[in-house]
Amino acid sequence: MSTLARYFQFDELKTNHRTEFIAGLTTFVSMAYILFVNPSVLGAAGMDKGAVFTATGVAAAVATIFMGLVARYPIAIAPGLGVNAFFAYSVVIGMKVPWQTAMAGVLVAALIFLVLTFFKVREAIINLIPQDLKVAIASGIGLFIAFIGLADAGLIVANDATMVSLGHLSSGTSLLSIFGIIVTLVLISRRVPAAIFVGMILTAIVGILTGLIDLPSSIVSTVPSLAPTFGESIKHIGDINSFQLATVVLTFLIVTFFDTAGTMIGLATQAGFMKDGEMPRAGKALMADAVGMTVGAVIGTSPTSAYVESSAGIAVGGRSGMTSVWTGILFLLALFFSPLLGVVTSQVTAPALIVVGILMAENLRHIKWDDFAIAAPAFLIVIGMPLTYSISDGIALGFIVYPITMLATKRGKSVHPMMWALAIIFLVYLFIVAH
Fold first, then answer.
1. Residues sharing a CB contact under 8 Å with residue 311, sequence separation 6 or more, in sequence order
2. Is 77 helix (H, G, I), strand (E, B) or coil?
3. What is the pLDDT of residues 66-108, one digit of tens each?
4. Which of 101, 90, 104, 89 is CA-nearest to residue 44?
5. How far is 232 from 34, CA to CA, in rounded Å?
6. What's the CA gap between 217 and 220, in Å, rounded?
7. For 319, phi and psi rounded to 5 degrees?
8. 392 to each of 42, 155, 238, 415, how far by Cα in Å?
9. pTM passes above 0.85
């Protein structure tokens, strides 16, 4: 048996090098869309798309390889959808915070993550916030992402009379997005591996054939420079000097906390890693996320998160950290294909955003809808995010109402002091800072 096989416990996990490579490749192909979607989302915030492309790949590679070598789990990590939308649309565009300052906020949150994870505080804090509110946050982000996707596709447009309305579906760009949405939904319904990625490729091809998308001048090139974004977060860390920006940092912490923890637990359950309801080496797995987020903030990308697409690799037999190592290596190799960025227009990425939104909304079934004291704040979180066009505002609405409804039902003592503190913080934020 090779040294690698012994280190990754191939015999105990009933796997081998071939299976782990195929699993790593499957996971990579399933989540490769983030290389093209993330630059599109952060590009809306004024960031250089080429630099974000490289930062996305490097951060994903570092975090995922760390996950494989240290935590030894077949779980991939990359800049997350949802939190990148919060970064671009809520913080930069909505609050009019320069992207450099927002990235400094990500770095501060990442450094706090490192400390909290090292002292095992992160797992404890996660347990303090009610499960229903955690899943409401995930669901709300899903609706928010889907709303952005529908708008990018031109299917939902602004309307002075009704606020929003159906767009002009007969336009070429809208028809291209509709094609992409239908194809992706069919592929996922048929359980086709890497359905989102395949859907994006097919949509891009149709766009090129119909003249809606320009053909790229090349496919392979040198890796785009990180210069436009590298180190900007460090230079602007002193700009985190207001209550509003402190709230932004807190929101980065909260959203990334729940997204990664929930995904890891779900994947560990799928792969059969859970023991007595707990995930072994959870601290090391969370550290991989914290390292990825820190590296990403320094080089220029939004917070990282564990990817549910890792389930595709697990489904084909990936059981050890070697799966993650292969996925990370493939992210590095993919950096040489940046010319394809021009092909990935908003009409190509819109179906991916909508479908990911649908998948995230699955969490709604875990909310106790028959308990109004819990359902009310959860609902406000879910509906508040798309309607306020802000993830943080949606979270604020739910966190403010939760202690009130629990107190009204004589369950005030069950509310952790931290939830009362968060309610006060968000109350001040909504009434004094944000508006």
1. 266, 267, 270
2. strand
3. 999 999 999 999 999 878 988 998 899 988 999 999 999 999 9
4. 89
5. 22
6. 10
7. -135, -15
8. 18, 25, 22, 21
9. no
